[in-house]
Protein 1
Amino acid sequence: MTDFPTNQTQPGRFRRAWNSDLGWSFRHAPVAMVSLAVVLVLVLAAVFAPLIAPHDPFDPSTLNLMNGFSKPMEPNAFTGDTFWLGTDDQGRDVFSTILYGMRISLFVGVMAVAFAMTLGITLGLIAGYLGGWADTIIMRVADVQLTFPAILVAMLVFGIAKGVTPPEYRNEMAIWVLVFAIGLSDWVQFARVVRGAAMVEKSRDYVAAARLIGRSRSAIMLRHILPNVLSPVLVIATISLALAIIAEATLSFLGVGAPPTQPSLGTLIRIGQGFLFSGEWWILAFPAATLLALALSVNLLGDWLRDALNPRLR
Amino acid sequence: MARLSLAVALTVLVGTTTHASEFRWASTTDPQTMDPHAVNSTPVLSFLNNVYEGLVRRGKDMTLEPSLATSWEPLENGGGWRFYLREGVTFHDGSAFTAEDVLWSYQRASSVLADTASWFSPVAAMVAKDDYTVEIRTKAPNPIFPDSIANWMIMDKGWSDANEAQYPAKDGENYATLHANGTGPFLLVERDPGLSTVLEPNSDWWGEAEHNLTRATFTPIQNPATAVAALLSGDIDMINPVPIQDAARLEQAPGVDLIRGTETRVIMLGFDQTSPELLSGAGPNPFLDERVRRAVSMAVNVPAILQTIMRGSAEPASQLVPAGLRGYSEANAARPDLDLDGARALLAEAGYPDGFSFELKCTNDRYLNDASVCQAVVAMLAQIGLEVTLDAMPVRNYWTELRADNFDMYLLGWSPGTFDAEHPLRFLAHTPVADLGTWNFGGYSNARIDALLPLIQSEIDESARQAMLDETAAILQQEVAYVPLYVQPLLWGVRDGITVTQRPDNFFMLRWVNLAD
């Protein structure tokens, strides 16, 4: 575990990071190292899915229905084909579907967090730095939203979006609607943290100095305060990523997320759940295990980052 | 959203204390309406047969029995039928049942706003001779007319007047879509669409009760695995259908019985045969060309669907009715063979050598494994270059979408209510006009079939009738009006000690349910 792959092209920067406080903490946290390894493997597998996957599960013309319900590692009774992790009811290779499904899960997760982060940081900075009415309005909206479970907000947004999109674009839009729905349900955390940090920072001397030389309010917020509030944001973003991946899986599991022709991990679990009683456990078990590994390792990484960046725990 | 509400419904159900002879059953589809004239579909008619009654009804073996009419006889010279009504029957609200209600129900069920209008296309007039005698005059002799009105349910005139439900609301809502007032063995006590519907026995029913229920609760459970889990854990007494993949397991599970049968329902694909353009507007509608429809019929690998998705428990279908039904055409029993090269050649001949893209509409909670079958069809059509966008939706919005012509191709299951091959001709094959071809969403039209239908309806000689039915079956196959896929199996799961009666029309009658003491 200690022979972490070194980045040959920029040894200096990597060495600095490796020797920094964060690097020291990382070297002494085996859980974080394992988690990072799992995340890297899964992300690389998802990114390079078209190169790794034996099939393209999104191309229906490559499917053979007679391959349906093949057991893992056993040749199919009709076609003689063997699939590592078996096939689902449509004859889709479960391994390929997981790789492609993970792409959607990761894409939706990352984009949703990016959206939530952008929205949350912007509103948090405005609320924290400007204060007054802007602060009151933004934070009350945030409070109200916090009283709803995030998944409920996401379902609401999803339902409305589905109603207003024309049916022919619904499948293409489904992914972006998911990003929007999950992102919108998750901005409050970012806004709260950034607001708190911005309120502390704005009374510091460097902010006063920037104000004295006549920099605009937006420049002060973005160029001066933002860089100083980023480390807690980073922690929240990591933990949010795990939550967003789970939120996407939940929505897809409930049938309101990724369409069945473009399945994400949650859609796969929903499909597999229908075959749990009939003995085709692999259709459910492998996507579920992948989701578990992905969400758990991202979460553990986030936990470690939070502890490592917390000066009181050092 | 629907799934979530079902989950809520289930938890509520689990929380309720159960009465000694309370019966709880579940199905994937909620009956869309409580109005017996608004939607002509099995979930609705089957459910409402417990609450409303017709002049005649079907027994356990599908034979015709007296119900609100005690007897009937043909009028002189084949002019129609005379029905003698049962006396002393009251509706659930206490008002008396008379000929006036029959005439009113005719007017209501045959109006253009009703989904049942085509049942009455052979009717010229309906006349009350006295309070308990009704004459139904037909335009031509109609030997099977009593069979064709077994699901025509009688509604009280006073009740529908008082509640402003004079006309059925097909896609909308009125008092009668949420309330019911029939003469049947059960009363509608609670109706919560999509959540639960509660019935209680009608103590004033004219018939002899064969059941021992005190209360019956219906819950739609859309997720088949959830339904199986509910049955196995004892939260539910009966589920219809059992998911095909779980049939083998339920057969072995202790405490649960699996009841197998074959439904008279043929699952088929239909095409838009009238719109000049595809739904997407991307070009002319290729399905106007018979060769394209034939190519589709040659590319769908039905044996593979039956082998995997249906797990060997369904039979292939060659025409709109299953083998063995009255009027089935033995002469046209062959299905097109799988022939991908032939299909590609036909597409090229029709001017689509590179295929085209279109939308397939499909239910995902109506027929057994419907969404899976559609997905498989998408993959099979991809082999001949057709790029299909699948829109699988709950049946709740499905018929509305089809009526609005929002499809290029669609999935349909048809079970002939009269148990006769004439029934699908009337609904699916006749050119859509006021009261005929009402479920012919694609607008298929053939003058010969339109001309044959009234002749079939009035023909008394069996072999002459069969010859005409053979001709229609041949025309429908030749022009690929539909692509019949397979006959749907019936799979019910029932807890031990409960007796139920399974009819091949998949109607579930509470009046034949008995719980163990």
Protein 2
Amino acid sequence: MHEPIMNETRAANGGNGHDAIFTRDLNLWYGDFQALFDVNLAIKDGMITSLIGPSGCGKTTFLRSINRINERLGYVRTEGSILVFDTDIYGGEVELAQVRKQIGMVFQRPNPLPISISDNVLFGFQLHGEGRTRMHKSEKEEIVEAALKQVLLWDTVKDRLDSKATELSLEEQQKLCIARLLPVKPTILLMDEPCSALDPKGTEAVEELIWELRGDYTIVIVTHNMAQARRASEECIFMLMGKVVEHTATEDMFVTPAKKETADYIEGRYG
Amino acid sequence: MADTTRTVAEPIPTAAPAAFDRRDADWYLDKAVQVLVFIGGISAIIFIIGIFVFVTREGFGFLLEGFSFGEFFGSPRWKPTSEYNTTYGILALVAGTASVTGLAMIVAIPFSLGAAIYIAEFATGKTREILKVLVELLAAIPSVVWGFIGLTIMNPLIIELFDVPVGLNVLNAGVILGLMAAPIMTSIAEDALKAVPDRYREAAEAMGATRWQVIYRVVLPAAKNGLLGAVLLGVGRGFGETMAVLMASGHAVNLPDSIFDSVRALTATIAAELGETAVGSEHYQALFTIGIFLFIITFLINLTADLIVRGIRKG
């Protein structure tokens, strides 16, 4: 219902330059504890934006509130608004399932479902009813192939699409977790430290993949790894104690940070 | 100054190396506990073998002499006290046990799975705790009480509702047994659902799955072995249950045509007749042969359930 609106807006805006995510006075509490303070951000469409900051600064909380997965915890209270392509996703008429379809999420620990590789790729697709009108087997295969090719996983798994996804290596699992978001054609991909469970080789491969996806999707990536933020993102947001300190182009932030806190963090004085 | 030299000159007496073989009270206590725990650990094996040997020995004479495989399993006539034509056919008894257990599972499976899904996936905080305690309390109701309910409440109710002459029948015993088996099945099924890692749920929800989709497409498939184990344990319970079935089934040797026929269960037959037979007689031994049969069946069911449940732990 809301999905065409979002897509049309996206088309009308012509991609890059416009804001994909726009927040206005976003405040968030876990019970009595306030985790986000007046977050006002504009994240640009089609870019990779990284969120950095010390542990507990609210970057993951912010990320998780963008597809409302935060609400799994019953004691979360959110105030303010998050506009995704000009639609307030906390608005009364918004369907949660549609929000999460548009805004895919990749978690810190790869979490493929304990089903086959191809079923994992098709899971979200079938969830949203696209698979309900009896699809041809060949159509399903095409979707699986396209998604896996896009995440550079096709060649390694094409001969074992029916084996369990949980048997893959962590790097492959994480790629699969990205692949399974793609068939429902999301506009935004949220990634919560997607490489922190991977070895250096896996990290490099997944980073490369994220860089490949840039432009087709708006990507917001939380990372602890400063080097990763520097090499794998175009814009960078520095958060501290639940507040946004600085939001600028990545190269500017690492070369000429505007705020003292940012400079201190980047130089490793704390965090 | 003088003090320090002294300490250096007189270290702790060097008797220690010689005491490496010293056994103090802790050493003996440790050994004693080890032995006790070992005995406790293997006692289950000893008992199960002991029971099997006992039951087999008592029924063995019949197995060697009067036993005919075809008659025992093929004949619906259980006439151990007939003057001129004694037959020991357990077909009707097997049919009785199977029909009651079958109906019990039809009653218990939706109840217990529903309860388990509610407790594991929906209920929170106090509601969940209270429900879990209540389910355990239900499981602890003695079977004779359930039999009593079958006899005094279900019996007139069935007669009135369905206009049948006898209310002690497959329906009565099946419902009673189903309610009896449901609590234990609920708690095992709930364990199986709880064992599904939360990140699977989170992954599905993040993709936009509704609560029902999460349960139906993620949690139930991931827990299916445990749930199957729960059902099998319920079946095992049904086969082994004696008192409630004896009281509610009507205890008539009969191949049931409908759920309103009275039947007799294998277990109930042993319970009702064993006290009235002469020890060592053919009838006595025939009852023990039923015992062997029941033992093997329940053993197989429980073993299968156990293997299935273990299967999920590994995978």
Protein 3
Amino acid sequence: MSIASEKEKKEYAAYAKKHGEKKPIWKHCWHAFVAGGLICLIGQFLQVFFITYFDFTKDTAGNPTVAVLIFVSVILTGIGVYDKLAQWAGGGTAVPITGFANSMASSALEYRTEGLVLGVGSNMFKLAGSVICFGVVSAFIIAIIKVLLKIYVGIDF
Amino acid sequence: MQLKGKQTWVFDQPPMLLSGAAIGGPEEAKGALKNSFDLLYDNQWVGKESFEKAEQKLQEDAAYLAIKKAGKKPDFFIAGDLQNQIVASNYTARTLDIPFFGLFAACATTMEALSLAALMVNSRAASRVLVAASSHMNSAEKEFRYPNEYGIQKAPTCQRTVTAAGAAMVGYGGDTDVFIPSVTIGRVVDMGITDPTDLGSAMAPAVVDTICAHLRETKSKPEDYDMIVTGDLGQIGQRIALDMLKEKGNYTIEPSKFMDCGLKIYHADQDAFCGGSGAGCVASVTFGYIYNNIRSGIWQKVLVAASGALFSPLTYQQKESIAGISHAVCLQKGGNA
């Protein structure tokens, strides 16, 4: 029979693993740490810049900072550089807001050939959609925990 | 034609490969086999407005070139590719205006098409049959993986889809002296691999199954072949296949006589991870490099076992395992098998 039994599947999985390439997890972690940290550092510089040279406070400087990071990320995606950086950086370029911007810009670019409405419009959130969905759901749960802690335990943070 | 064993056709009057054509893209133009392509484009768009149309253009170019080189029109056209509903092939057939069979066996399509073409020619159902297959990196990424510009870190087990197309004319009465004495049709083999970034591991058992069947049923030995070629197993799949052939089939193949199209097509520094893949890879390497080598007498007898990973983006999200299939075609200089 050409479908393997569970035992054969397990044996083959071990066999393939023995022949396979190991994912360099520690190297990936280090790259992600450096790249992600660097992006956050740039963000910090931008924030200080906006507070120092423009009329922004610590609370309001976040908006222009994020706007600049998103803008740069989208430009880098458009000129075909972001995916190459990401191959080195991994999670480091995926987790910050630049990764979110890249996921939307890359989808928009990819489906441009299918037109603006059915292509770009409906596919732009193809990857970002689950981030938004689970982001909203987890924010909702965290907010409930926060409210409950405040009412019943008296902790406010 | 005779059925030997369970799955091998041995042709009493072997059909001939009357011509071969290979068309590639920019990355292939930098690769190790750049001299065996007939035409290489310098960008992925190939002057078209979408990657899907670009792939169609590659296949059309290959088909027209194979017809031109053979000097005669085919009666039938058999082709396949990796796009949804094999549209690149369907639209190529629209352009060619020749009665058409569309096939899908992922990257094994080329050898499936070649087997059927040989059968048709041998049984006199056609005097000449044109076969073609293609793949395009960007259209494949879009369909099977993520948007091309999306920043995802690819696993070291990944393979790069080759942007290329290959076509060949099968018939009698040419002067190329490259024959198809036998073919082995593969079974679908599923060993339960579910990782779509590691297709080499998923396909290797199918390749081993088909190569063993071919050697057993044609009563030949690995030493009888100047080269045993696999179609896009990549580094990992090739390692597995070599070991499994020894352990399961008791066939010892010299690593120097075991070639993978996906490993051969690029240089090691080309960021192809485990090697190239795609229906166009084995098609362009077989109808370019391998065909030229047999024609010029560098190799006398070659077995090409192309392998396909049978899955769709939906099935792996539904946790279905990735099945493999492999079809093998023997190519030989001179008609006496």
Protein 4
Amino acid sequence: MNVFIYIIKRLINAVPILILVSLISFFIIRLSPIDPLSELKLNPAISPQTLEAERVRLGLDLPLYKQYLKWGGNFIKGDMGVSTSGELVSDRLKERIPNTLLLTGIVILLTWLVGIPLGIYAALNWRKPADRVITVFTSVGMAIPSFFYALLLLVFAVKTGWFPIGGLTSFNFAQMNIFGKIFDIIHHLFLPVLVLFTLSLAGLQRQMRGNLLDVLESDYVKLARAKGLPENKVIYKHAVRNAINPMVTLIGFEFAGLLSGAALTEYVFQYPGLGRLVLEAVMKSDINLVMASLMIGSIMLVVGNIIADILLKLVDPRVTME
Amino acid sequence: MNKKIIYTILILGFFVFWGSSCLHRDVIEEEEKIAENKTEEAIFEKIKPPFEIREINGREYLISRGDVGRYGGAFSNSTIGEGPKTFNIWNSKDATSSTLAGLMFEGMFTTDAYTGEVIPKLAKKVEIAKDGKTYTVTLRKGLKWSDGREITADDVEFTYNTIIKGGYGDTSSRDVMAVDGVMPSCKKIDKYTLEFVTPKTFAPFLRMLGFAIAPKHILKPITDKGIDEFNRFWGVTTKPEDFVVSGAFKLKEYVPAQRVIFERNKDYSMADKNGNLLPYLDKYVVYIVGDLNNQVLKFEGGELDILPVRGNQVARFKALEKNSDYKMYNLGAGDGTTFISFNLNNRKNDKGKYYVEPKKQKWFNNNNFRKAVDYAIDREFIVSNIISGVGMPLFTAEGLSSIYLNKTLAKGHPQNLQYAQKLLSQAGFSKDENGILHDKEGNEVEFTLMTNAGNLERESIGVIIKEDLAKLGMKVNFKPIEFNVLVGKITGSMDWDAIIMGLTGSALEPNNGANVWYSYGSLHMFNIRQGKDAINRTNILPWEKRLDELFSQGATTLGFENRKKIYDEYQQIVYDYNPFIYLYSPLNIYAVRKKYKNLEPTALGGVIHNLEEIYIEE
């Protein structure tokens, strides 16, 4: 079947999922006893008229279902509404998304460039010291909580003074030349990238190693070896090619995690990304902002899955698009 | 198999050592420090003569009261949270936006950070007519906006009559200025003179004339387009060069979630004693940090030059101060208050049901009962245990830094359980053989104490109070609940027994708390009257009535001494009748790098009230 029609079909299927996600998130946020106006209510300087005006401005005076319909209608039209502080949600997202993409993009690129070869290497050196060392390190990587690890590195930065304490750029960034700017960003990105890289590398490397070990046991690899193919060809043409399939599926999830995967690390490093924005929005029950980010997350997941499926088709001719 | 274990241990060991070496220095001997914090002298009663005005090149400059410094350098501060929402100061609703935009726009008057008095800033002088209603303000000559235009009475008249009175931006400033719902009038007399007339004498008005003045030539076209257009104007996405300012600093760069950078305004209207134009600093940087821990780390890492030090950190910072490049300043108690309050409401709701159980109404409305609770609480213990001694016991409705503080009450009284017991038995309460307190009718005294969950200080206070009151035989069920639910109970359903709460205060103007003390006020939380109860002012207690009178007198009386008497009496009433039982005020302690000179921290102004005078030592 045509790839194009396939994509359309999948997108149509995604609509009910998105509606369901939005319904559940909207009502969970709204039914929780968090009132965006409670801070104002306890401020002696705020008059009841001002409070009422705020309620109307945020649409809190409408019944719940009307609030949802109003939000949904606007969202479809591409209008994500205003945050509780009055700015356009789309503006707020726009200023943060590139920063998060920069961080997660680098991390994903690095983990795949290092993780896959390392997985292959470990599988080929199965039970040799090199494999063992890698295994121990990846076990630590998987076990250590990202939050704690990030904090440790932050303390490290404070004590040594080798790295800036959070943020993305230095205060004199605007006056630097282009090389200075690139170096400054790398300097700031190093620690957050290290945290995320260590954590996701562990998972990816182990997955690749496991897959390849399975495949290396299979009959067709034994046959290839038996018929005297060079070892290089056996591994890279036959074994790795087959072991990579499950990894392709993972790409779909990685894609979904592009925007939301780094929230905790972002928070610890005070990284000006989406995660920190959304975390603060949840605490303040800034419903439009939270909804927008949840919806973007769900859309990314759907799109990521479609991309993964298409990639799978490209990698593996046995897969059909039915 | 063995090898694997050895590898694991080796690597784990590496992580543990690394982690512990990082963390080691943070755990420093706590014990000796508590006493030390207390002995440190707070900065009080430092007075400087008022600004002198000197004419230089045809412009009238305010002359700095600090030493002559040198130009250059930057000062890095920080703000916790999301950062500014707007730089339009007339539309800022949150403290961060107001503070940051406040650097760029000045008012006719300001508060003297040393004395708390209202002193002229853009204005030269003010004359108040004998009737106490007419204010004639004269502006300084030759004041300049940062685009070179002169600041004149037109700008003031426009700001007051169009922006504030017209309801542009945040309307709460209008609400505060209105006297019985009527806004004072404003009329331009000539290029430098204006006349304000209040409908009746209204004491807080002079301080309110400190509102930021807007450049008419820039904002007039915007206000003509309507309120929405104005409210969006000068938001966080505006290009820095588009701002036209009157303050010491001008926006240079705003990087969302990272920092705000201000640069020196070359046209600022202050100079030092030698006639050099202020400010000295080239840049003022405000980092936007997400939480307290990050703020501390950034200070320790040298990125910040100033840090508000919290209670549990004071000991550590104090210990490290000697060998470091910072100095600590104790600004004394802040103006916020923490208190416990009982629900005195004895009315019924619309469905004919009492808000508070009738037997509890009797306890809570009994003056002796509240006084007994007041005497049973060990405030010293709360201060030394919950905020590591970095605070002061509080007994008065005005905070300890308030210029209206009733000093005779401020010392308060120590915990006295015998006296508390005596008060209770006078009121007919008695303890049974198990030590449980009963009222006259024989009901066991048991009530619920609530506070907002997540506020660790208040949660720990609750536990201490529960134990203190258990000594009197009261059974307190302490229940922290979600902040929003609590606010809903206080201002809406009113079904609560006792709460631990806090309110922000004002060190300069008791009338800002009028909403709490008027018997019909929307924050009169110990006895809220809503709907027809507020209009009819149903069953007002005698002392509530006296508070109503005092607050309306206070607002319409001029002169500090006269008002002081009125507000002294209000504090006495609150002290005697205990609608709020005040607990403590935390101290404001700051660490600032030593290289900055002309630092004159005051209790009222904080550390950087004279930012334009601060310079870096050679």
